[in-house]
């Protein structure tokens, strides 16, 4: 007698099949996404290394630089939700390839800015081009990995930004020393780093699949086992939401607003540090561009270790909100301490803060992922990321204004500390009621 066994039962009866599928998925997509994120992050933040060059060659001062650095995130916020919805329509393979190719072209075009206006326009267009990448990858994980694997996958993926921060310093510092062909070193930096992303988009097209059912590198049993557990988790999550759930109804949920603010506070600290750290390092002594890049890598090396340490602790002692709060408090203490001494002490304090703010970023995402109705998760994840990323506009724009008006960014560092402490308290309000 040939009795059909439900797919979910098969997955439960043969955990080794599911485990094998998960391992294949992680080895196939995580390295690719990490490389993509490295290229993405370098093209986004490499202007931090050319601030002095833009001022010298184009007359772009501190306030204009801060606004241009941040205007990227305004575009990102405006176009991220539509981009993520379009990914659901066209598929991850086509859409993520499109995102990568377009941001590479615009990043290359940064070499040809002529002044403040063109600087603002190109940074805005870069935000438009990149919009949807990060939440698109986050949503991709919900389609390919079981709940228990996503926290570790997010930590590995987010390590791409830390690796990018490590690599971007020596890489950009080295490229800045290139002169010739009618271009300055800062122009060669934009051209070479931007074209690298264009080349990478072709690799993405050949290596990425939109859905597990498209993955020929998985066996039929592995595809079935993976689909069964992911579908079961979706049904369980959707069962706890009203049947007429919509984007509008979820936006009325106070937790969504909390998610947005908490992520906003995290991004404030990350991008406040990212765009202004090279300037802080230059105050420590007379360093070459390459040496500045090497010093710039140190906080991010520390942050990678912290991300894995916090992820392991959160997995073992399951209280995600508490670990996010601890990480935010560490970041707050480090940023506050950076205001109490000279440039060298400030640099050491920011290294300590790095233990917290990158760990908080990776620990944060499993919280909204576990809360959202899967039917609209893509749009809401994009909304949280886009509004949260406005911290990337507020921090550099404020720091630039403060430096130009007062000659110091100390007030901005106080604000970053306060925002992290507030977010650490609010994260506990995102817990589900029993």
TrEMBL record:
Domain Major facilitator superfamily (MFS) profile: 29-434
SUPFAM superfamilies in UniProt: MFS general substrate transporter (SSF103473)
Subcellular location: Membrane
Pfam families on file: MFS_1
GO cellular component: membrane
Main localization category: membrane
CDD domains: MFS_ExuT_GudP_like
Keyword tags: Membrane, Transmembrane, Transmembrane helix, Transport
Membrane spanning stretches: 29-46, 58-79, 120-141, 153-176, 188-208, 256-277, 297-314, 321-338, 344-365, 377-399, 411-429
Membrane topology field: Multi-pass membrane protein
One function term, GO molecular function aspect: transmembrane transporter activity
Superkingdom to which the source organism belongs: Bacteria
Protein name as it appears in the record: MFS transporter
Lineage start: Bacteria, Pseudomonadati, Pseudomonadota, Betaproteobacteria, Burkholderiales
């Amino acid at each position: 007698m040939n009795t059909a066994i439900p797919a979910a039962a098969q997955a439960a009866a043969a955990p080794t099949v599911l485990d094998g599928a998960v391992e294949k998925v992680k080895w196939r997509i995580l390295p690719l996404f990490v490389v993509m994120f490295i290229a993405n992050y370098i093209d986004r933040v490499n202007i931090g290394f050319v601030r002095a060059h833009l001022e010298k060659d184009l007359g772009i001062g501190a306030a204009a630089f801060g606004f241009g650095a941040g205007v990227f995130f305004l575009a990102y916020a405006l176009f991220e939700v539509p981009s993520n919805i379009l990914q659901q329509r066209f598929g991850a393979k086509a859409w993520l390839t499109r995102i990568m190719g377009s941001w590479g072209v615009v990043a290359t075009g940064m070499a040809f800015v002529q002044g403040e206006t063109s600087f603002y326009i190109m940074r805005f267009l870069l935000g438009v081009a990149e919009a949807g990448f990060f939440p698109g990858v986050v949503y991709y994980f919900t389609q390919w990995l079981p709940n228990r694997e996503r926290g570790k996958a997010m930590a590995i993926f987010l390590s791409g930004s830390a690796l990018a921060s490590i690599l971007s310093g020596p890489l950009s510092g080295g490229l800045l020393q290139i002169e010739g062909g009618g271009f300055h070193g800062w122009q060669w930096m934009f051209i070479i780093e931007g074209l690298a992303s264009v080349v990478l988009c072709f690799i993405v097209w050949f290596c990425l699949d939109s859905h597990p059912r498209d993955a020929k590198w998985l066996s039929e049993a592995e595809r079935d086992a993976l689909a069964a557990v992911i579908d079961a988790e979706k049904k369980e999550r959707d069962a706890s939401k009203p049947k007429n759930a919509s984007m509008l109804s979820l936006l009325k949920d106070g937790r969504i607003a909390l998610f947005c603010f908490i992520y906003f506070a995290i991004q404030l600290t990350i991008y406040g540090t990212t765009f202004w750290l090279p300037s802080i390092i230059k105050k420590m002594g007379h360093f070459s561009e390459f040496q500045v890049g090497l010093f710039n890598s140190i906080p991010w090396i520390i942050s990678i270790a912290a991300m894995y340490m916090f992820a392991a602790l959160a997995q073992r002692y399951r209280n995600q909100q508490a670990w996010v709060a601890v990480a935010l408090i560490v970041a707050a203490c480090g940023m506050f301490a950076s205001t109490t001494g000279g440039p060298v002490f400030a640099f050491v304090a920011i290294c300590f803060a790095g233990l917290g703010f990158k760990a908080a970023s990776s620990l944060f995402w499993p919280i909204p992922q576990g809360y959202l109705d899967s039917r609209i998760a893509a749009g809401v994840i994009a909304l949280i990321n886009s509004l949260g990323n406005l911290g990337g506009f507020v921090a550099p724009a404020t720091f630039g204004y403060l430096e130009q008006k007062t000659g110091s960014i100390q007030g901005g560092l106080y604000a970053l500390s306060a925002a992290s402490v507030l977010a650490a308290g609010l994260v506990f309000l995102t817990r589900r009621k029993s």
